[in-house]
Amino acid sequence: MTQPRAFGEGRMALVTRSGRESRPRLLDLFSCAGGAAMGYHRAGFAVDGCDIADRPNYPFPYHHGDALTYLALLIASGEIRRYAFVHASPPCQHGCALTVGTNASQGWGRTHVDLVAPTRDLLDATGLPYVMEQPNGRAKIRKDLTLCGEMFGLGVIRHRNFELGGWITDRPAHVPHRGRVRGYRHGRFYDGPYVAAYGNGGGKPTVPELQTAMGITWTDVREELTEAIPPAYTEFIGRAALAHRGAPALGVAA
Description:
By secondary structure, the chain is of the alpha/beta class. Helix content is about 25%, strand content about 20%. The longest helix is centred in the last third of the chain and has 14 residues, at about 230-245.
């Protein structure tokens, strides 16, 4: 039998009568507002986040601080052992196709730090299975999984690549897109079944449209929505990870 126990600001997890959590615990690094976290929660994980920005909308307990510094401290102290799995979404501006192209076209010449390699080094040092996520572009990660909104019936395309460390799963087939992303291109408006989950202007969606398209309801901050991973992606990954380790997916709704 289980009973609720409060974590942080009224957030809940399930513990058994013996005091042990019934869910394996996952560490969500570079967590933003919790798009990835919610998917893992729905799959059956208890989630703790970490982000360098203040994220009052994050729906689970989180540490406010530098993700790599925090991970290094967890490893050094041995506290990393309370986790069963790690997810990391290091900032993508260095390698993201959209950012690289915009900077070059505008002549901004802005330099972004590539955190992929140092993130991987620390993830490997945990000894835990992990996922590292990046968008399409120049980021040097293995594309063990590539997920798309159409695979889950979402109103965004939002291709995302995932490198899997210490575990494997089947690669789902990519589903053909049903049309264009709605918005202006070179002064011409195109309609379509998807919205553009980035930027402002140019026919970009409203915040309610973004929330619906992404499947995210707990934040109405545009910047957080445009940076988020749709929870459907990580629910898929989380269920696969739990199946890999022999634990059942719990099928918990948000």
